[in-house]
Amino acid sequence: xxxxxxxxxxxxxxxxxxxxxxxxxxxxxxxxxxxxxxxxxxxxxxxxxxxxxxxxxxxxxxxxxxxxxxxxxxxxxxxxxxxxxxxxxxxxxxxxxxxxxxxxxxxxxxxxxxxxxxxxxxxxxxxxxxxxxxxxxxxxx
Length: 141
Hints:
This protein is mainly α.
């Protein structure tokens, strides 16, 4: 007996109607950043919120879109109807069409995500130094 295509009994088959679920590699291409930057943002918990399926971090397209629009609106760049969107969509279309080659990264989003990572890492290190200093102070006195 054959199984239907949307049979959810198999662990390899996931069916989410009207929700696109992307792997981290696909999500980094969707955002236009390097996969390592997306991984670092996940470690620092400052990037798009991942969902966990079978202990694998995956991203919804809606969450990635909101994260991207949030980064762009923070610097006052609009994506809809502007020249930025036309240039970027052409670069993404070329990158998706060429399988096996590295895709063109979006320079603005690479810089914005690097700035976000830098700010979050600096904040964590400063709070860590504060806690360490208070701990040393309590031990010595």
